[in-house]
Amino acid sequence: MQKVKISTSLGDIVVRLYDETPQHRDNFIKLVKEGFYDGTLFHRVIKDFMIQGGDPDSKGASKSKHLGAGDVGYTIPAEFVPTLFHKRGALAAARQGDNVNPERRSSGCQFYIVWGQTYNDGQMGQLAKQMKMQALQEVFNGLVAERKSEIMQMRRERDHAGLMSLQDELNAMAEATVKEKGLGIMPEEQKQVYKTLGGTPFLDGQYTVFGEVESGLEVVAKIQEVSTDSNDRPTKDIAMKVELV
User: Fold this and answer.
1) pTM for this predicted structure
2) pLDDT higher than threshold 90 for residue 185
3) What is the secondary structure of the chain as a DSSP string?
């Protein structure tokens, strides 16, 4: 079990890296050993949401420099593990959006630590509906991709009845798949964490969670409270030094 200490002017944060996400773990350890993160900033901070860092372009960056696009020239395959979720204090990998990154591959260096909020029963119920709809949509999109040539042929032939029939068929298949595999359902234990500790449940299954804060959560609390500019960059730089524990 590898732990990493992130030292800042507001205090130290110790995170534990998960063995269940070995590619993210090993890459993070490699960068820490190289001193990659030393001098980088928490360049994007959003109150009641998260604190993000790891952009190499943030080292010594002027106040006018736009940050967030820096990388190491590679990405990491998503490692989604249902039991590892976006609770408060979770360490997760940033990434580019689905429109250019449908596989949801992670940035090779940028990361964020979750703060989020706590949820009541009503909010969790609404979230559950959204999760099911999202699961249905993702399965449906996958089925559409598998039948793309058939769909294109129908469109060329202007077979509207055939397209409607196929849509009904794929919707039914998506419903059956989601039900059979239990997709879009949050375990009760996970719900309780979001209702008590808090976090950002709507990011689950979207970004890879690969660690969690073991000590220094109060430091995360301080950082997410700092004043920021219109680009969510802290008005006073928060640099970090990162080392293996």
Assistant:
1) 0.89
2) no
3) --EEEEEETTEEEEEEE-TTSHHHHHHHHHHHHTTTTTT-BEEEEETTTEEEE--GGGTT--TT---S----S-EE-----TTS--BTTEEEE----TTT-TT-PEESS-EEEE--B---HHHHHHHHHHHHHHHHHHHHHHHHHHTHHHHHHHHHTT-HHHHHHHHHHHHHHHHHHHHHHTTT---HHHHHHHHHT-B-GGGTTTS-EEEEEEE-HHHHHHHHTS-B-TTS-BSS--B-EEEE-
